[in-house]
Amino acid sequence: MNNKRQSQQKNRTIVSLGIILASLGLAYAPVPGLQQTVVIVSGSELQEPLKQLEVQFERENPNIKLELKFQGSQEIVNKFIDNENDFTPTILIPANGEKLTELSTRYQASNSDEPFYEKPLPIAKTMLVGIAWQERGKVLFPDGRFRWDRVEKAMQSVKWSGIGGASDWGSFDFVTTNPTRSNSGQLTMSLWTQSKVGGNLNSSSFNNSAVESLFGLVKRSVYQPPRSTDILLEEFIAKGANDADVATVYESIALHRWEQATKTQGKPYQIYYLNPTIETISTAAIVKRNVDQGTANAGQKFLNFLTQPQQQAIFVQYGFRPANNSVDLKTVPNSPWNQNIPGAEIIPTGDKLPPPNTDIFGEIQRLWERVN
């Protein structure tokens, strides 16, 4: 009898433990029907840090699932306006906030409501820089300063031998992204045009035969320009000198991928800060179209997460400058600014300009498409 009673008590204990464990599981597991899916469309320059932060955020927020998509910054705007995505975006993060201004203007031209739930939020900063394989950079920029006229002269010469390089270096190969799809390509042509005409840019700056000739030269020289900056740098490193000599990219990925260049090509590239350069701030906005309030709230939780110091430090590790000014570049563990990368500077000496306005971006795209 005692054995029977002990067996019954043991069974009741097991059942009770099972109920407790099941209850705990329900408490901490995502509840079916309550999980929110947040679709983030970002410029490719943020791909690696966002993938790392996605894992951490989902672990801390099991009822929110993130889906990351990556496009060129101009593509983000165009595909949203033209409704060409085969998914419903929740958050857009182009490489600079001016792209969201452009999107808002174009959206409101045919819609009466605002496109975003809240004011766009800065996520991380970077700037346009030049890179070159060190031996070739010393020939092209003998004073150590990036100069647009030297790049143009090299493109006109076609061969390195025409500007003092070794004859076996072959053709001079400059690389930039497609200005009709990518922010960095637009910034490149903006700064190059400004250098060409002198002074500030306006729409009439592009009604200039010298500028039109410049665009034609670059378009002919840059065969099949990549659609995004990260793709450009991966190709630049893989091809090496003789197929890719000089490029314009974001400081962030130039810092992040320099070690890859050393391993792949046996040497790093040199970073050149442009003067002036353009600071570009990856900026996020939660869109209203087909996004309910619950999903928008989940999206806002993710954006708040990204701007906290711990997450901002992750962006620094990938070469970005923080949007949160409480984060110090030098004290972040594994900061690229502590790794003696050739040419890297914590405080560049040149001037930093804001991105061009929407009208300038439009003129750059139109002229690029028009010239041969």
Extended strand count:
10
> What general form does the structure show?
globular
Helical amount among residues, as a percent range? 40-55%
The chain-level mean pLDDT equals 91
Distance between the termini: 98 Å
Number of helical segments with 4 or more residues: 14
**Uncertain spans, ≥5 residues at pLDDT below 50?**
17-30
Largest sheet: 10 strands, mixed
User: What fraction of the residues are assigned to beta strands by DSSP?
Assistant: 15-25%
Oligomeric state, counting identical vs distinct chains: single chain
Mind telling me the C-alpha Rg?
25 Å
The class by helix and strand makeup works out as alpha/beta
**H/E series:** HEHEHEHEHHEHHHEHHEEHHEEH
Protein name: Substrate-binding domain-containing protein
InterPro entries: ModA/WtpA
GO molecular function, one term: molybdate ion binding
Pfam families: SBP_bac_11
Question: What is the compact description of this entry?
Answer:
Helix content is 45%, strand content 16%.
Feature tags:
ten-stranded mixed β-sheet, 45% helix, 372 residues, alpha/beta, transmembrane
Question: Can you characterise this structure?
Answer:
The protein is α/β, with parallel strands linked by helices and 372 residues long. The protein contains 14 helices and ten strands. Strands 1, 2, 3, 4, 5, 6, 7, 8, 9 and 10 form a ten-stranded mixed beta sheet that branches. Strand 1, helix 2 and strand 2 form a beta-alpha-beta unit. Helix 3 runs parallel beside helix 4 and helix 7 crosses helix 8. The longest helix is centred in the first third of the chain and has 27 residues. It is globular and about 65 Å long. It starts with a helix and ends with a helix. About 4% of the residues have low confidence. InterPro entries: ModA/WtpA. It comes from Plectonema cf. radiosum LEGE 06105. Keywords: Membrane, Transmembrane, Transmembrane helix. GO terms for molecular function: molybdate ion binding. This is Substrate-binding domain-containing protein.
